[in-house]
Amino acid sequence: MADERTEEATPKKLRDARRRGDVWRSRELGVAIGLLAGAAVLGATGSAILEALVASFTLALDAAAGRLDAGPGAILEAALATAAGALAPLLIVVIVSGTLAALAQIGPLFAPDVVAWKLERLDPIAGARKLLSTRSAIELVKIALLLAIVTSVVLATLREGWRGVASLVARDAHAALSAGGSLVEALLLRTGAAVLAVALLDVVYQRWRWLRDHRMSQREIEREHRESDGDPHLQHERERVRRELAMASDLDAVASATVVIVGAGVAVALAFDRTREDAVPEVVARGRGELVARLVQVAHASEIPVRTEPALARALVTISRGEPIPARHYEAVAQLLHAVWSAPLPPPASRRTSAP
């Protein structure tokens, strides 16, 4: 039916949806990229981060043991500054990578409608309907699946490194932090890979669902075309008028032709000025289908010779009006013109009534 949304959304509708902030996006992809970026940073700068954290802990321990003259506040501030400086690159990379993952999906977007206050957002019935929708159920299943996968990966990673974690209490601070850093890196890497697998599936699903939600009915498409291009009936009428004007122009040009060449469903009128040495035959009119009979009729009325050459007519009908014929057709056209000029002229009455 005309009201069933079975047609793909038009580019205009998708642009309008994006302008309103209605875009598809997988949040899990940003999380996965952030975790993997964090693992990469730890692998590349882990030793520098480790040294800074060891210095921070050493400073705190020295302060606790009374080996420093500075006040507790200053010592705590210095320790925190050292730790923050060590972890800042990691946090920045995680945040930036997550942001870039979002931009890669939807591109730069400014949509004031997303944050604009709207009264309908306070409708409890609409809110309840949204919570109980199929979309919410699918999101809940996705979150449960993601939580189960991440929990399994974390437990498996901790189980593998359990002996190393248990022995940290008997080791010095540097060794303990080194082992802890390796464990955190493994957790980030494996968790990121697991989340990425789910995110890639979610990307496909989110885009499919977004396109499905924006499907249009045939009536909506017709209304959009009317709004952007005008009434289709008026377009057809304008096209009909253009065709008639073009046909009239072709018919008028036949009077200036030297010969009209016809074939199976095509006709071409050529003009050639043999008083000029550099003259080349050019197409002054052409037609297909119903226009062929009109062109031949005008040619007879104007006493223009009409010749039947199907192959030559099909080759020349593709040439635009006002264009000279290609050199590869010179010989065939020259022979045709020679035959036309050599043929005896029939009486005027027969010229008007004879068929080609």
TrEMBL record:
List this protein's GO terms for biological process.
protein secretion
Extract one GO cellular component term from the record: plasma membrane
Please give the InterPro entries that the UniProt record associates with this protein.
T3SS_substrate_exporter (IPR006135), T3SS_substrate_exporter_C (IPR029025)
Q: Does the keyword Transmembrane apply?
A: yes
Top-rank taxon, per record: Bacteria
Q: Which UniProt keywords apply?
A: Cell projection, Cilium, Flagellum, Membrane, Transmembrane, Transmembrane helix
Name used for this protein in its record: Flagellar biosynthesis protein FlhB
So where does this one cross the membrane? 29-59, 79-103, 140-158, 187-205, 251-272
UniProt keyword Membrane, yes or no: yes
What family is this protein classified in?
Belongs to the type III secretion exporter family.
